[in-house]
Sequence to fold (198 residues):
Amino acid sequence: MFDRLIEFLNEAGYLGIAALMFLENVFPPIPSEIIMPAAGFGAGQGRLSLFGVIVAGTSGSVAGALFWYYVGKWIDADRLRRWAARHGRWLTLAPRDIDRVDRWFDRHSGKAVLLGRLVPALRTLISVPAGVFGMSLPRFLLFTTLGTALWTTLLAVAGYLLEGQYRIVAAYLNPITNIIVGLVVAAYLYRVATWRAT
Fold:
């Protein structure tokens, strides 16, 4: 898979990197932990520029985050409260919980989005509450772009420096991603099992 990805990136260039990073945010066919180190490796081979790789990866990823931000805007807090009133167990939220999260997000939205973009598996999800709770688009774009640029830079530079060993990045990050996903699923299942409407 790595070799095919390298071939694809060599042929598709920056547009291919941006497209894969967009898709990785919308429906992850290949995680960024593989795409960006492979693109960084290509830059290390002189086929692409490292700066161009980082800009392309960041642009595609921010575009994918915008997709989920607008999904959140469509849901909006009022609709989420109505869903919580009807389907609270499956959302593991009561309407009062929505109000509490809304207040918390108003105070911490910038930090939440910035740090959320640096956490594997949660990077995309943080865009949804930003839309749901009405974070302004310029503010969302600022913190999303900052967090995304840092993430893509770290991965691309790792691939650039590690050269042929760039697969090591995915080897280290994939288990972390799996653990985070496992914890999120376990927490959700626990909340469904113990949820009580009050």
Remarks:
- The mean pLDDT is 80.
- Helices lie at 2-26, 32-44, 50-75, 77-91, 95-116, 127-132, 137-162, 167-194.
- DSSP finds eight helices and no strands in the chain.
